[in-house]
Protein: VWFA domain-containing protein
Amino acid sequence: MGKYRGQPLKLPCQMLDIIFALDQTQSIGHEYSEKMKNFTKELMDRFFVSPDNTRLGLVKFGKRAEYVNNLKLSRRKSGRQHQVLKLIDSMHDLDNITNLHEGLKMAFKQHKKYDEFQTWRRQRQDAKNIVFVLTDGKTHDLSAMKSLLRPPYVTAVIAVLLGPMVSEKSTEVLAHLATKIIHWTKVDGTERDKQKVMNEIMENFDFEPCESKIPDIPKAKKFGCFAKTTDRGLEALNSLESDKCFLIDDDGSLTREDAFEKCAWLAFKRGYRVFGLDGNNTCSSAHGLWRFYKGGFEADCKDKAGGYGSNIVYYFKGNIFLIP
Structure:
């Protein structure tokens, strides 16, 4: 295991085409399947998803491999990261046969097709192709797995091993084609801290996951001051506070610097149409404006931030919708 955790891969931070291949089989089980899906969503948040930066693809595999989201869809809806997150949440069924090679072949095939498409369009020809595979390393067709090689157009295959039973054989199955193998579940059955696993993955990229520099974002226009809850007691906006990496100051302070800019950038990065800040600079977002009317207007908003029970709401110009 040690030789795969040596020097970081020094992958670029820009122009990445990333495909996530998720093992959805009964050997993983529902508990680890949920862990895998949640971890994938958190990992996606570490990259700046946009037309000119990172684009996402998604494959699930069991007996067969299946596209869940392809890179062309990501091109048409670049930045709409919520679309991919919804597709991850929609994966429920677990197959009873694991063909790991089918999942990797599908990911490699998708990269090849997209490269040909981009060559024809003369775009993103310098993008680096990355495959993340999350699996317990088990496979029913060992000979097919051993004969599978990483194609030259794929820059890196990063394997994250987790499940109720991960053995040394799991590492051997992937050793010939993975550029990096990271154990979330150890061979002795113990589980490493999730954050340490995340940090080990991000060490392979030539940028800090919590960059202080805020990328350029489209101009946001103020829509108004609205109650934080609807007339039914529901939150009018969805919180983005789970992404502490981008929102909280280096010293852990909640009264963050550049709160408006950080919230605007994160909302745009995830593909939301609107966003808002309350009096504590808590960042929230939504896909449409329809729910704000349910709570009514408020008057206690301050400059660029809401009040005790209100959000000041902004929308990206040219992207305003009254329905979700």
